[in-house]
Amino acid sequence: MADRLVGVVLAAGAGTRFGGPKALARDDAGAWLPRACGLLAGAGCEPVVAILGAGAEDARHLLPPGAHPVIADAWAEGIGASVRAAILAAQAVHADALLITLVDLPGLQPEAVARVAERWTGDTSVLARAVDGGLPGHPVLIGGAHLGRLLATVGGGRGAGHYLDAHHAEEVDCTGLGAAEDVDER
User: Fold this and answer.
1) What is each CA distance from 75 to 20, 53, 151, 186, in whole angstroms?
2) What pLDDT digit, counting tens, does each position of 73-124 carry?
3) Has this prediction a pTM greater than 0.90?
4) For 66, which of 31, 36, 48, 76 is 20 to 30 Å away at the CA?
5) Longest C-alpha distance within the chain, in Å?
6) Can you give the chain as a three-state secondary structure string?
7) CA separation (Å) from 85 to 35, 80, 81, 116, 153?
8) First to last CA, the chain
């Protein structure tokens, strides 16, 4: 399929500061994992994958229809292992671009996801990220032309932020739309 935009929810961490795996978290509006998957699907991503680690067996049951689990075997090493698993999964399905978000953004609004997703025009060199009041956030859009080079630089606690900075990712204003409001404590 041409112009394949794959959605990725990073949800592998143990959530030690939070008190448990964020893939299993919920609030008054419901479970966070299916909400994040739904935001990506609603923006046109196909397929949507959830990168799981801590609590993976229980988290699988929270995935909505059409969302696929991918286990980051080295998830305990940090976000870099999750990003690595996401890139490998995307390459396996011949993704032209990735739209990545975090499970711990329960206030992320569909408008923010749509604003970043709109940057996907089929150009595999695209690189864009949501910003909220000047702070980098999610989602992040990474064209397929970057995947191999990014894969060589991620690992442990090092995700994609350094790469986005070094390659001057387009900043998409998503101020007030929950793009940088990750949850670290209950």
Assistant:
1) 14, 5, 15, 22
2) 989 898 999 999 999 999 998 999 999 999 999 999 999 999 999 999 999 9
3) yes
4) 76
5) 42
6) CCCCEEEEEEECCCCCCCCCCHHHCEECCEEHHHHHHHHHHHCCCCCEEEEEECEHHHHHCCCCCCEEEEECCCHHHCHHHHHHHHHHHHHHCCCCEEEEEECCCCCCCHHHHHHHHCCCCCCCCCEEEEEECCEEEEEEEEEHHHHHHHHCCCECCECCHHHHHHCCCEEEECCCCCCCCCCCCC
7) 21, 9, 6, 22, 13
8) 41
Q: Residue 8 pairs with which residues in a beta bridge? A: 49, 100
Round to whole Å and give the CA distance between 177 and 181: 9
Distance between CA 40 and CA 108 in Å, rounded?
A: 11
What whole-number distance in Å separates Cα of residue 94 and Cα of residue 62?
A: 26
Radius of gyration of the chain (CA): 15
Q: What pLDDT sits at residue 49?
A: 96
User: In terms of CATH architecture, what is 5-173?
Assistant: Alpha-Beta Complex (3.90)
